[in-house]
Design a protein that fits this description.
Phosphorylase Kinase, domain 1; Transferase(Phosphotransferase), domain 1; 5-stranded antiparallel beta sheet; two-stranded antiparallel sheet; 5 helices; 9 strands
């Protein structure tokens, strides 16, 4: 029996995304929703992606597969994922303060050091979790770090993630070569040792 997702989730508002200048954003809409089944009226984000106009779905498939594998307090989770016609629906927790990019855009003269320290510390917890599992995020940027109303910081966007463990022999790789064309947008955020492929396993 099919779930009637239209009855399960109710759209509250339309949200603007800070990365609206991305090429893929023209095929995506973001909404604030709640789950009618939950009595506490917790809010979520619905990202609606029109797959009909996309030529490359690899990025979305990788992103969704990583959500299933990762579980940490400071990593964005995926509550639900379903397809209606050609529309991919991704349901995620709502970060009421938006992304760090939103925060920087609304505070052009800077933010206080205590808040910066709070964001960096929690982001590092997420990175340590990934590193302990020999995973590189490769997309850490202000638009991918979200701030929740309870002070929790969430790292999102796993489409550039890669495991340093070889799928062929199970050993740690010293170099990786599968860079997508879109990863060049993240070069300014990548550490030199990632770009130059040195000392990754030391």
């Amino acid at each position: 029996m099919m779930n009637n997702y239209n009855l399960t989730y109710r759209i509250i508002d339309t949200l603007k995304r800070s990365e609206s200048n991305d090429k893929d954003s023209q095929f995506c809409q973001t909404y604030l929703i709640n789950d009618e089944k939950e009595k506490n009226e917790t809010k979520f984000i619905l990202r609606l992606i029109d797959l009909e106009n996309l030529t490359n779905l690899t990025e979305f498939i990788k992103d969704i597969s990583w959500y299933q594998q990762l579980n940490h307090l400071n990593l964005m989770s995926l509550k639900d994922c379903f397809l209606i016609d050609t529309k991919l629906n991704l349901i995620k927790p709502y970060a009421s303060f938006g992304s760090c990019a939103d925060l920087l855009n609304s505070n052009p003269y800077g933010i206080c050091e205590q808040l910066i320290a709070h964001i960096i510390w929690q982001t590092l917890q997420a990175i340590c979790y990934l590193q302990d599992r020999h995973i590189m995020h490769r997309g850490i940027a202000s638009k991918n770090i979200y701030l929740c109303g309870n002070g929790r910081v969430l790292l999102d966007n796993f489409s550039h993630c890669i495991s340093m463990i070889s799928p062929y022999d199970g050993k740690l790789r010293k170099q990786i070569y599968d860079y997508t064309d879109k990863l060049k947008d993240q070069v300014l955020y990548l550490a030199p040792e990632v770009i130059y492929q040195v000392c990754l396993n030391n």
